[in-house]
Specification:
The protein is α/β, with parallel strands linked by helices. The chain contains 15 helices and 22 strands. The protein is 31% helix and 25% strand. The radius of gyration is 30 Å and the shape is elongated. Its EC number is 2.7.11.1.
Length: 503
């Protein structure tokens, strides 16, 4: 027996969904597009038809629930024109039955359903479309009155469409059936795409989708974030880091400050994540900016994601510390994005980072800070797992990542609500301590998976001369407690030195 050749694939008109499906939907099949009202079904269905029109195909929108004008308003909100494809509108039972139904010995709903199906079939025969959207099945379910009769009619429609080489989307708003679902319908369709809308206690509503089944296709399973924007649905496929590996050299990335580089044996290696943790004001952002400045001076592209601080404040601070970020931005080497986490789905953030790496070839990413992102989205589930997958992706792309994590408290025993050390290759710890009547800063390396590192504690100074790192604080004990005791004879503090080991 000659094996059947696979069906050609048709694009859905949505790049994100096509990526999830491995290129698109197998042609000449029947698919179910289901979701609660407001989840984006109509928008996605319109994208599907307009893609067919763009490819020179005939397309037909069959609407049993919405009027032509209502459909036109939805399309116009995205800048689309529904006159480019055929629309068959069935507003009421009177359009089908006319008068005199009460004279029949049959129930009116029996005639109504049969006549409706015949009208739809005649319209399909007339238009001969390659793509069809049937909106919505809930109206047919009401007309059928009986689950068995409803299933038989859907099966009849499947056979009818199948003989005409059309790719069909059946739209269902999930308002019928047990608990709003129809498991029988899933078994009849070649594939099932489900859209969901979630209302959070704060911030914009979240939307997501999943492909529940698609026969013969190795699609990307699981939930994928989406948003309805002008121009259609934006769907961000779930990140799978293991499928994005590329070869790179794991060389150190120096900061331009010799003493700081010496702490890490030359600097963080490419493809590693460095967690910079410490209390507010200890210099975490400035340490990361020092590495960014050095990378841009080498001609490398960098990206900073700001969750907690305004970009203007960040730039002003950098200028005060003798870091010329404005030049790097003007040269196109540095991109700084202000992120509003209350409005940003986590899937979109991951997609933005991926675009910076894949399209702009960014070699260094700074996330400032992660706990601000998490705190603004307390109802989002599995954010740490998504962040772990994102960091794994960046690692496999050879990107140097800096993840900033503020700790609560200023002196003494400080803590963090997030245990992030396990996802980081390198951990830099910053601390305040008091000595000589001044509040000072200390820096140390807690771990460095990628190589050797110093185990000493050094003083950190950030002022108009830039970032400086002093000698080991060997004459002190208890620095990390914030209240050290001086036990030496010669002070190693920076004001007693001519320079701060700045390159």
């Amino acid at each position: 027996m000659t094996p059947l050749s696979p069906s050609p694939v048709v694009s859905t008109g949505n790049a994100g969904l096509d990526a999830i499906l491995g290129g698109g939907l197998p042609a000449h099949r029947l698919y179910l597009l289901e979701g609660a009202p407001g989840s984006g079904k109509t928008t996605l269905a319109l994208q599907f038809l307009l893609e067919g029109v763009r490819r020179g195909e005939r397309a037909l929108y069959i609407t049993l629930s919405e009027t032509y004008d209502e459909l036109a308003v939805v399309a116009a909100s995205h800048g689309w024109d529904i006159e480019t494809f055929d629309v068959f509108e069935l507003e009421s039972a009177a359009d089908v039955l006319g008068g005199g139904t009460e004279q029949s010995i049959l129930h009116p709903w029996e005639l109504e359903l049969d006549e409706t199906i015949q009208l739809l079939q005649r319209e399909v025969e007339r238009v001969k479309p390659a793509r069809i959207v049937f909106d919505s099945l809930s109206e047919m379910r009401l007309l059928a009155q009986d689950s068995l009769r409803y299933r038989r009619q859907v099966l009849a429609l499947k056979r009818f469409f199948g003989r005409r080489n059309a790719t069909v989307l059946l739209v269902d708003d999930m308002t019928g059936g047990e608990n709003g679902t129809d498991a029988h319908l899933h078994s009849l369709c070649h594939g099932v795409i489900t859209l969901e809308r979630l209302t959070l206690d704060f911030g914009a509503a979240r939307r997501r989708m999943q492909v529940q089944k698609l026969r013969g296709v190795d699609f990307v399973a699981g939930y994928h974030d989406l948003a309805i924007r002008k121009g259609g649905l934006e769907i961000w496929p779930r990140l799978i880091a293991a499928s994005h590996h590329r070869a790179f050299d794991g060389t150190p990335t120096p900061s331009g400050v010799d003493a700081l580089d010496h702490l890490l044996g030359g600097g963080p290696l490419r493809g590693t994540c460095t967690l910079v943790t410490g209390p507010a004001g200890a210099g975490k952002t400035t340490v990361a900016l020092q590495y960014v400045d050095a990378a841009c001076r080498r001609g490398e592209r960098c990206t900073i994601y700001e969750f907690d601080e305004r970009i203007g404040t960040l730039m002003a601070r950098a200028r005060a510390f003798n870091l010329d970020l404005d030049k790097h931005v003007a040269d196109g080497l540095l991109v700084i994005e202000q992120i509003d986490p209350a409005e940003l789905p986590p899937g979109e953030f991951s997609w933005r980072v991926r675009q910076q790496v894949a399209e702009r070839h960014a070699q260094m990413i700074v996330i400032d800070s992660l706990n601000g992102y998490l705190a603004a989205m307390p109802q989002e589930q599995h954010l740490m797992l998504q962040m772990h997958e994102l960091l794994s992706y960046l690692s496999q792309q050879g990107v140097v990542t800096f993840l900033l994590n503020p700790q609560s408290g200023l002196l003494g025993n400080m803590s963090s609500e997030l245990n992030l050390s396990y996802i980081a290759d390198t951990v830099l710890l910053l601390r305040f301590f008091e000595a000589g009547g001044r509040i000072r800063k200390a820096i140390s390396v807690l771990k460095n998976r990628s190589g050797k590192h110093e185990d000493c504690i050094r003083e950190l100074r950030i002022d108009s001369r830039g970032l400086r790192v002093g000698d080991p604080l060997s004459e002190f004990k208890g620095v990390l407690t914030g209240t050290p005791e001086y036990v030496g004879a010669v002070s190693p503090l920076l004001e007693n030195r001519d320079d701060g080991h700045r390159a």
